Amino acid sequence: MKAFKKMTTAELMTFCLMSISSGLMIGIGGTASLLAMSLFEKWGKIIGALLFSLGIFAIVTYEMRLFTGMVASIPRMGLKNTWKLPICFLGNIVGVAIVALLVSCTPLGASVAPQGATIALGKLSAHNWGLSALCSGILCGALITLSVWSVKYSPRKGLDATLGVTFPIVVFAFCGFDHSVANVLYFHFLGYCSWKIIGYEALCVLGNIIGGIILPLFLHLREHAIKTK
């Protein structure tokens, strides 16, 4: 287990700001995706998935802090450092909420808000919505880890790394898998909060964590097996 590393005040402030910045990027990418789905009908989903990937690409490029990206480090993080996860998630939510509020005050709100509310209602009204949130969250978490770790494991940088970051995000956005941070944008446009929404988000967070640590655990076991030969 890694030793606890105490953050200075400046480091903690930077961590919080980078977490909020990640939320802003997810909010902007999510807004562009919702607008595409509203404008382009049949092609809207694939165009929206491509546009959404911009948010994750910016997060990876500028080393911002995204909750679903950080969970991949849980196997090596150590229990004493897991306090960073809820702070990161809270910062992400703040960033997304800021974008949602700003968008609501622009002409885009008339197109984006109803589309986001429709997606949110679809999630909440699904049969076995709790199981759906968990399983969908697991699939999303696995794809997010593939994306954020692609820079580390890509054989070459440049185009290889860019495609490695982008392609898993396009897949998860196109399939509509549940991203706990992006969901905040959709639920915001419903205009209300309920215990069902909170429960859905909690299960989605759990799914994102489970899916996000699968690949890192496998890689850790592989490295351990190689060292013990």
Structure, explained:
The protein has 229 residues and is mainly α. It has one domain (9-227): Glycerol uptake facilitator protein (Up-down Bundle). The chain is built from eleven helices and no strands. Helix 1 (9-40) crosses helix 6 (109-124), helix 7 packs antiparallel against helix 9 and helix 10 packs antiparallel against helix 11. The model has no long low-confidence stretch (mean pLDDT 91).
How do the strands and helices of this protein lay out in sequence?
Layout: H1 9-40, H2 44-61, H3 67-70, H4 74-77, H5 84-104, H6 109-124, H7 129-148, H8 150-153, H9 159-175, H10 180-188, H11 195-227
Proportion in β-strands? under 5%
Average pLDDT, to the nearest integer?
91
- Counting DSSP H or I runs of 4 or more residues, the number of helices is 11
Major sheet characteristics: none
Helix content range: over 70%
Distance separating the two termini: 22 Å
SSE-based structural type: mainly alpha
CATH topology: Glycerol uptake facilitator protein
Low-confidence stretches: none
Helix and strand sequence: HHHHHHHHHHH
Computed Rg: 18 Å
Name the CATH superfamily assignment. Answer: Glycerol uptake facilitator protein
**CATH architecture annotation name:** Up-down Bundle
| Highest CATH level, the class | Mainly Alpha
Task: Count the E strands.
Answer: 0
